[in-house]
Fold this sequence. Notes:
Layout: E1 8-9, H1 12-19, H2 28-41, E2 49-50, H3 54-61, H4 65-77, E3 81-84, E4 88-91, E5 118-120, E6 126-131, H5 142-152, H6 154-157, H7 168-180, E7 190-193, H8 196-207, E8 213-218, H9 222-230, E9 234-239, H10 247-257, E10 261-264, H11 278-291, E11 294-298, E12 323-327, H12 329-333, E13 339-342, H13 345-355, H14 364-376, H15 382-402, E14 416-420, H16 426-434, E15 438-440, E16 456-460, H17 465-483
Parallel strand pairs: 1-2, 6-15, 8-9, 8-10, 10-11, 11-12
Antiparallel strand pairs: 3-4, 5-6, 7-13, 12-13, 14-16
Family: In the C-terminal section; belongs to the class-I pyridoxal-phosphate-dependent aminotransferase family.
Pfam family, one: GntR
Domain HTH gntR-type: 26-94
Amino acid sequence: MATITPARRLGGGRLAAMLGEPDAARPAYAWLSDSIRQLIANGRIIHGTALPSERQLMGTLGLSRTTVSRAYAELRDRGYATAHVGAGTIARVPGGPVGGGAEPLPLGGFGPRGGTSGAYDDVGEPTAVDLTCAAPAAPVGLADVYQEALDELPAYINGMGYFPLGVPALRAAIAADYTRRGVPTDAEQILVTAGALAGVAAAARLLLKPGAVALAESPTYPNSVTSLRHHGVRVASVPIGADGTDVDAVAGALRSSGARVMLCLPDFHNPVGTLASDEVRERWAAELRRAGATGIVDETCARLWLDEEPDVRPMAAFSHDVVTIGSASKSHWGGLRLGWIRAPHALVGGLARMRMTLDLGAPVLDQLVLARLMERGSDLAPETRVRLRAARDLVLGRAAELLPGWRARRPAGGLSLWFELPRPASTALAAAAGRRGVLLAPGSMFAVEDHGLEHWMRVPFAQPEHELEWALPRIADAWGEIAG
Length: 484
């Protein structure tokens, strides 16, 4: 085979720490092979990484040459490694990293490309990085949870398989989580959906007739606005500043627009990153009641705290009328494609009918997986939180070195940074970065009006650190081009 230079190498000591204690009940080669395979499958060993040499691993783990050789052979046979002259054994994802897999935005030409968040060459070096998306990789051990759910699946196979409102175990787990967070909830108030956007769409169909007005802060998550407009709703905007929601401005916009619904993102706002205090939430809910408007509260980012768990309650604690939308895509894994609606009892029936105009239920296996994950906790996995915190600080630090004049608050949670640029050139910057293999979403994509916000750029930090390290100098180079 041809001699190659791998993009990164994994030392024997580091691999030993990742492997943990051997399983004495299994043959050593099988334990070693399966453990490394799980690390690759869970993204902890990156595609294209050179594994320790057999001699090095023998010394580190105290295993025989035969044991290590057989383990590596098993990895190669199952497609999780290849052998290269001069480089040794290279970890790989069978078939290569799958194209796409990122969070789609209505960007008309931007969007997922290449691997999980970018494209790679044969040895795992990035050739493109997608920074239009902000979603973490799956937590370690997710494949094992799928196996547990498969063991549970036979109990459901005898029936027809339709659960339009959601599998009972998952509805109960979500309700219990709200109750733990200070909002007493029963399972009848929970409707499982195929992602958060399906929840927004169902709520909009129930609460708004075509031609009605909804209010949204600008900037905001663009797919929610697109969903409302698809239903024929007109969307008015109220600015959100760097300090977060201006309740007085919201009150004025509710009066002047006549909006009957408002999209609310109180938790680590996407893209601004702000977190509303309990005082703001209480005043916000009061203004919605005063205007006769219903809040559709997007809690997709509610559990994405990075520094310390915030002492705030859900918006539903301050109003019995709000409709809350949740999602597993950020806190657990986007591939589950599951969300939920928490609604007042008076709206549950109508929401259920609207929900069934979209589809007849989410996949049963994925719901069983999420039920198990929710029972273990609704937060990010601890190792995911540690990685995201480090990545956030990496981007802030490197931006301070490479991009003088760029300013961003250090958010206490969420998955992205909202940079203020020294000049209004966000769209031009996105184009220049794209020519260098870095996909960015210009600030205008987050504007309710679909234009403006040229002084702003969202930069996610959910991607692997080596991708961020690859992308940031290229963004700086692009900025140098357009800034002269």
